[in-house]
Amino acid sequence: MTLLLNPRDYETVARERLSQSVYDYYAGGAGDEITVRENERAWTRRRLVPRMLVDVSACDLRTTALGASLSMPIITAPCALNQLAHPDGELAVARAVSAAGTAQVLSTLSSTSLEDVAAAAPAPRWFQLYCYRDRSITHDLVKRAEAAGYVAICVTVDVQRPGNRERDMRNGFRVPPNVRAMNFGTAIEDTTDGSALLKYINDQFDPSLTWEALDWLRGITSLPIVVKGVLSPADARLAVAHGAGGIGVSNHGGRQLDTVLSSCDALPAIVDAVAGTAEIFVDGGIRRGTDVLTALAMGARAVLVGRPYLWGLAVDGERGVLRVLTLLRDDLALSMALAGTPTIGAIDQALLARTTCE
User: Fold this and answer.
1) What angle do CA 260, 299, 343 make, to 5 degrees?
2) Euclidean distance between CA atoms 73 and 291, whole angstroms
3) Closest alpha carbon to 191 in 183, 255, 201
4) 3-class state of residue 270 by DSSP
5) Is the pTM of the predicted complex or chain greater than 0.85?
6) Could you read off the pLDDT of 18-59 as tens digits, one per residue?
7) What is the mean pLDDT of residues 255-278?
């Protein structure tokens, strides 16, 4: 039996259990997948400078995100259609997140309704929002999230059109009829001329979005807004100017525009640009506790992980997700101890070496 010691071990087993097309849908990215690979590699180039003779007999990973208390600065990212990995889908993730004491970000394109996910287990929960061409659809989603107790809206701004995902094209990826976009209660119907999911995105998501849309969103909800998909410091400043309480430094897991900056490399300039006026979150390529520690030292409030929990879900449902979160938590706790940073508040830029390793 394979000993599963880290998220990559879970990916190895998940790849064996999932169909090729579903594995590739989760693992793949746009174009030549340069950004997918670079997201992971960028974290490995960073170097830490630990401090010695610090009492690390007990490390405290507790933090807050947008005012909500978390047991650790690790949050599950929004990923579409979790039932592709396991029949319990987002419900299993919700229960695991609750057990881990952290937060869940639910995708607009979840395979379980946002109300059912909220009822599954208590946890701080954000609703990830795509803005639809029909603003009434977007309005209704926001109001449903408010009514269900979600504590933030995480609006994704980097899917003007779906990226060039060649793995899905080669596989003829299709969403099986038993997996539905349950926030709308509808199947994503197959087409004869390509992926129905890509057609859905092209037909429904609004490619004409401007900063006006963020003003509109700010006007219909009092919930904190996180703008996810930001790589430019100028865009980060604009997001804050238009009412964002959080910035999600993200390239959509390398699934949109290939060859863009890794999230790790984009993070420092965005932290400087925002200068404490909004909380900073980052996703993309985070696989180890040292990656999390590095992100926090750079100025992130917390990290979001996507593929790692999907691999856990595919391998062992709720228990697999909880195990992946626990592995990341334990790895972070050990990394903090060895770095001489016993609390989240003790982590700062002094932990980072001035040079990187190519």
Assistant:
1) 140
2) 12
3) 201
4) helix
5) yes
6) 999 999 999 999 999 999 999 999 999 999 999 999 999 999
7) 98
Helix (H, G, I), strand (E, B) or coil at 109: coil
65 assigned to some structural domain:
yes
Distance CA 352, CA 49 (A): 6
User: Per the domain annotation, does 353 fall within a domain?
Assistant: no
CA dist list (Å): 45 to 31, 41, 145, 356: 24, 7, 39, 5
The encoded tokens of residue 67 equal: 């005012």
Separation of alpha carbons 155 and 214, rounded Å: 9
**CA–CA separation, 275 vs 124, rounded Å?**
25
Helix, strand, coil in percent for the chain, rounding step 5 = 45, 15, 40
Whether the Cβ atoms of residue 9 and residue 3 lie closer than 8 Å to each other: yes
**Distance between alpha carbon 20 and the CA centroid of its chain, in Å?**
23
Nearest to 7 by CA among 309, 334, 336, 252: 309
* Domain residue limits at 167: 7-49+56-347
Q: Are 247 and 226 in contact (CB under 8 A)?
A: yes
Is 128 in a helix, a strand, or coil? Answer: strand
- Does residue 252 carry a catalytic annotation? yes
- The 10s digit of each residue's pLDDT in 183-202 is 997 767 655 555 667 777 77
Q: How many domains does the chain have?
A: 1
Surface-to-core class of residue 272, CB atoms within 10 Å of its CB (0-12 exposed, 13-18 middle, 19+ buried): exposed
Compute φ and ψ for 334, nearest 5 degrees.
-65, -45
Among residues 86, 139, 242, 252, the one annotated as catalytic is 252
Burial class (CB in 10 A: 0-12, 13-18, 19+), 111: buried
Residue 356 lies in a domain: no
What CATH number is associated with residue 334?
3.20.20.70
List the beta strands (DSSP E) in 243-345.
Answer: 246-249, 279-283, 302-305
Q: Is residue 358 part of a domain?
A: no
H or E element at residue 296: helix 289-298
The Cα–Cα gap between 98 and 102 comes to 6
Q: Rounded to the nearest 10 degrees, how much is the dihedral formed by the CA atoms of 27, 103, 39, 46? A: -140
